[in-house]
Amino acid sequence: MGTWIDFILERYNYWIVIVLMMIGLYTVFARGNLVKKVVGLNLFQTSVFIFYITIGKIAGGTAPIYMGGELDHGGGHGEGAGDDHGVEAGHRAAEIGEHEPVDDEFVLSPPETGDTIDTPSSDHTVDEASLGESGSYVVPTSGADLHSKVENTVASNDLKAALEELGPRDSMDVGSSLHDVSVADANKVSNDALSEIAKPEELGFSLSGDQVDTTVHGAADAAHSVGEIIYTNPLPHVLILTAIVVGVATTAVGLALSVRIREAYGTIEEDELEALDDVAEFGESETAGGAA
Amino acid sequence: MSLIAQLPVLPVIIPLFLAPITLLLPKGRAPHLWATMVSWLTFAVCAWLLSEVSDVGVISYALGDWAPPLGIEYRVDLANALVLVLVSGLAAVVFPFAYRSVQLEIDETQSPFFYGALLICMTGLLGVTITGDAFNVFVFLEISSLSTYALIAMGARRDRRALTASFNYLVMGTIGATFFVIGIGLLYQATGTLNMADLHDRLIGQDNRMIEAGFAFILVGIGLKLAMFPMHLWLPNAYAYAPSAVTAFVAATATKVAVYVIIRFFFSVFNFDFAFIGAAFTYVLLPLGLAGMFIASLAAVFQEDVKRMLAYSSVAQIGYMLLGLSFATVEGLTASLVHVFNHALMKGALFMAVACVVLRAGSHSIHAFEGLAKRMPFTTWAFLISGLSLIGVPLTVGFISKWYLLEAAFAAGHWYAGFLIVASSLIALVYIGRVAEVMLLREPATDGRYAIPAKDAPLSMLIPMWVLVAANIYFGVRTDLTGGLAERAAAALMTVAGGTP
């Protein structure tokens, strides 16, 4: 019984989507008033917006806004991380473009390094990392020199920011990165993702279980603190902005048509319109028959 | 930055950026000339693109120089190059044709908006065809649909039912488009990508409920847009009450582009490893295609209104295209592509002939066609030749379509489908024959509301119409042009999809 309730509650956003969608579709089909139909259409579209937002949401992720740093480090990931002196602006070191969903990485660390970097799986390492190391993302593949460079450039306030971010919801973070992992691992994406979020240990395990790289320990630790900064997936938001524009345009055209229909027919009730059209058609074909 | 490197983006950029300029032009002749010029330019670019693709193979263009899986990719292969040429070619023929017809049917003050919307509609259709990005398909689909709603509603000046027809289309079209977006969302959630080629790669080996649901949403969504048989209810009224020139353009292109999208998703995004693709072919497309062929054809026979009759006939013809697809063989896909192309030629010519009659007789009721042969011989014969093409008489494109379809049906072992194709062609003979009888054998009305002056349509309409009629015959004789291209396109699509299931 309890599992059923959990099952429903954990997916509450999907339920909202489905309920809204059904209300919208029902309104479109069941209501005779054209304006109500347009409203129903709107509800239906809104449910899809919520669906897309659900796709993009990563629990614990912040808004995908890049705060300073060089924008053009797209080519060499490791180097980009190293000479990222824009840190003064903050900890949002990842260029959004680099973290498009295709990369399956919304964690700050550059995509290739994803497997060696210890993703925020355990609370104590996170604290340790953020306290003891400078917050930056380090690319283990590019070696230790890079790491030191990173350490030097990253200001301490960066760390603080990272800490603040991580602090209050360290356990959540484990779950948060799950979601993007599941984006990467398509099979998990489905509905399992949400339920997995509910069980952080399992999540952490699946994420980084054996990924803790002891040899590059320093680098990994450093990576922790910045790795914590998790962005929600920006792409669905962009898509939904487009879809909202389309939805607004559709509503505008629909309402404009309703106005014109009222001007032409004097009503916007569908059954009355149909009756008027029938009369027109009937009358027309009768006179036509007469002419023939 | 050579022009050739930028070629794939031009079919969308040219009309998109030149369309708003029509609003700045003085009303009257200028917007029409501008739109015609733009359509010819676009057609030239599309034809160039087709010859490039035919020579060098698939062209991939990264929009804004963002590399494909991340950025939006325009991907041109033979299949969509063919559809591009089709859409822009029909635009290039219908736009010059439109002037007199539009002058009669639309308020002159609206003419800049009308031609602007027409260009935007073309942009949307070309965009749907050329893009390699699944979400981009939705955006362009809505660009073309929104302008089509407006264009259909402009028919209200002659008949207020255009407004309700447009509203119904808007509701159905929006539901269809939204279903399509849900499907894309599910696929995105499963794969993390929107690029079609990338989707194809990442979907391999994934066979779960989510993909199935995504596929179902896409199929139903596009099904609504293309008026697949039980979802066709918006189409007859929309086509019947739209301004004649709009009907000629939209009927010839919009549903064809939707068929292309179905083909693209079936063959290039999904592949035959998915059990549900085979099921969709056998249990959805095949029976619905057959049902559409018959029920819509029968409905066409009983229409009093020639435009409505041709609209029902369009629903039936879409049935043929879906039938060809559902065989899931290279032959079947070739037949579908050939019919997409050929049906656009014949329906374009038929609706243009109706537009000429509307210009002179002021009505598209079948009574307006009485004794037409004596009043408007050129229009009559254009209608008859393209009508014969619709039935599938040898030496016309319709025959080629039917031939490919029959061949594919027998090769795929669906012999009964072969007989049904012939049987439904006979129904087409009935409804075209009915109009032919009225046109050729009845005496023209001398007074009353359907009396027509003995004056054929103006040359500005006759020439484009006869260009299409000539195309009906030319491509019916030179079968290697369309057939050969379609066959290569079909073979390429089939390779991506992984051969026969």
What does this structure look like?
The complex is a heterodimer of chains A (292) and B (501). Chain A is mainly alpha-helical. Chain A has helices spanning 2-10, 12-30, 34-56, 77-82, 123-132, 144-153, 156-166, 170-184, 186-189, 192-198, 200-208, 217-227, 234-265, 270-291. Chain A contains 14 helices and no strands. In chain A, helix 3 (34-56) runs antiparallel to helix 13, helix 5 runs antiparallel to helix 7 and helix 8 (170-184) runs antiparallel to helix 10 (192-198). Chain A starts with a helix and ends with a helix. By secondary structure, chain B is mainly alpha-helical. A two-stranded antiparallel ribbon of chain B has the order 1-2. The radius of gyration of chain B is 21 Å and the shape is globular. The termini of chain B are far apart. The mean pLDDT of chain B is 89. Chains A and B meet through helix 3, helix 9, helix 13 and helix 14 of A and helix 5 and helix 6 of B.
